[in-house]
Specification:
By secondary structure, this protein is an all-beta fold. The protein has a single domain, classed as Sandwich (Jelly Rolls). It has strands spanning about 15, 25-30, 35-40, 50-60, 70-75, 80-90, 100-110, 115-125, 130-140.
Length: about 140
């Protein structure tokens, strides 16, 4: 949730709004803000040492219809080469003017290195007003 500033998720006090799904605040993305909340950590920090599954759940309110505003997941190696780009369309879960819950689940490959960069974020590609609350990310080891 976004009840206060959160450096890990890229949330500052100026982006918090009292229009929220749960609690006191949600993060507001106005149309001019293209990159929403998310994380940027190493695969070591995420404890991704083998093929894994990621489950993402987020509450979203959009003031108008979305066409292309995904939840994005990327993996980039230590040399800057991106080897995974996955997107889950928020618009598949949303009704304009109503809080909705969006889900994104994906299987991740074995990382090239424990120093690879993992990013998960919301891309406001449609440049709409979005409110984001209760952004959760869970990783699971896939059994071989």
């Amino acid at each position: 949730d976004f009840e206060k500033e959160n450096e890990v998720f890229g949330v500052n006090a100026a982006s918090l709004d009292t229009i929220c799904y749960d609690g006191k605040y949600a993060m507001h993305l106005p149309p001019e803000i293209e990159w929403g909340p998310g994380i940027k950590i190493t695969t070591r920090q995420a404890e991704l040492r083998s093929p894994s599954k990621v489950k993402i759940k987020v509450n979203v309110l959009a003031d108008s219809t979305l066409v292309d505003s995904p939840i994005v997941l990327t993996l980039t190696d230590q040399f800057g080469k991106q080897y995974v780009w996955l997107g889950g369309k928020l618009e598949n879960f949303l009704t304009p003017g109503k809080w909705c819950t969006a889900y994104f689940t994906a299987n991740l490959p074995h990382p090239n290195s424990l120093n690879d960069e993992l990013k998960i974020f919301i891309w406001n590609h449609d440049h709409r007003n979005l409110w984001i609350d209760n952004f959760s990310i869970e990783f699971y080891k896939l059994d071989n």
